[in-house]
Amino acid sequence: MRIDPANADQARSWDGDAGEYWARHADRFDRNLAGYRAPLQEAAAVGPADQVLDIGCGAGRTALDAARRAVRGGVLGVDLSARMLQVARDRAAAEGISNAVFEQADAQVHPFPDAHFDVAVSRTGTMFFADPAAAFANVARTLRPGGRLVQLVWQPLQANEWFLSLAGALAAGRPLPPPQPGAPGPFALADPGRVRGLLTGAGFTDPDIRPLQKSMCFGADPDEAYDFLAGLLGWMLEGLDDDRRRQALGALRATLEEHHGPDGVRYASAAWLITTTRS
């Protein structure tokens, strides 16, 4: 797999412990983002004969949704995580889907064929590009003229209760570090002005950036949510002494209890659904 040196840290993370955790909890992550599934499919508008590229496909749910629509076409899902890609392949086999292929690749530099795909789609994957200008140019190159890029990315941190509440609890009184401008991460594409500049500079036209707000379910009850999140966000406990660690985990459990209702443990979230066309 060819890796852009700028993406080396991302590759080590997603093909290491982070990717392993996401692979083991693939179904939970899909349930977590279930509210965004239908809007993303509708915006992608995959046709029966389309060739589709799923960028940062993870465990394959979005790619498999596309494959069901592209019955005479095909889907290529790419990701940095070998473990998540294996989950995607296993899911495809279990669901009887034969027109989806999954490949370990860095979409920022991968030599996709020129003008091949009709649609490129990404569910919270493009935010992790170390060089988004180069990555979007590479995606534009592999799309046919008039081809669509549809991506779901997070709105700013302040608009996302799930992150403010959960990370805030585990911070144990420490201020949350602000997202670094331009650095890869969950909020890297939260600024619509920056996104428009990146996309038009890469060869796309008329980006449409639509706000979406959905609740996210982190577990059926606080115990299930706690087990999931203590592992997912455990890195935030690094460097804490025993007392502050207990304080942080206690605060996490308290916020989960506060957000527990008939439909599970839920937090508000806000994303951008971005649709644009290759020139």
Short summary of the structure?
This protein has 279 residues and is α/β, with parallel strands linked by helices.
Helix content: 40-55%
Tell me the fraction of residues in β-strands, as a range.
Answer: 15-25%
**Name of the CATH architecture:** 3-Layer(aba) Sandwich
Radius of gyration: 19 Å
Structural class, by secondary structure, is alpha/beta
Query: Kindly state the mean pLDDT as a whole number?
Result: 92
Helix-strand sequence: HHHHEHEHEEHEHHEHHEE
Organism: Actinomadura macrotermitis
Keywords: Methyltransferase, S-adenosyl-L-methionine, Transferase, Ubiquinone
GO molecular function: demethylmenaquinone methyltransferase activity
Pfam families: Methyltransf_25
What do these coordinates show?
With 279 residues, this protein is an alpha/beta fold. It has one domain (5-160, 180-218, 269-278): Rossmann fold (3-Layer(aba) Sandwich), CATH 3.40.50.150. The chain contains 11 helices and 8 strands. It has helices at 8-14, 17-24, 26-32, 37-44, 61-69, 82-94, 132-142, 161-170, 192-202, 222-232, 242-258; strands at residues 51-55, 74-79, 100-104, 117-123, 143-154, 204-219, 260-261, 264-278. Strands 1, 2, 3, 4, 5, 6, 7 and 8 form an 8-stranded mixed β-sheet that branches. β1 (51-55), α5 (61-69) and β2 (74-79) form a beta-alpha-beta unit. The radius of gyration is 19 Å and the shape is globular. One of its GO terms (molecular function) is demethylmenaquinone methyltransferase activity. InterPro entries: Methyltransf_25 (IPR041698), SAM-dependent_MTases_sf (IPR029063). This is Ubiquinone/menaquinone biosynthesis C-methyltransferase UbiE. It is an enzyme of class 2 (transferase). Its EC number is 2.1.1.163.
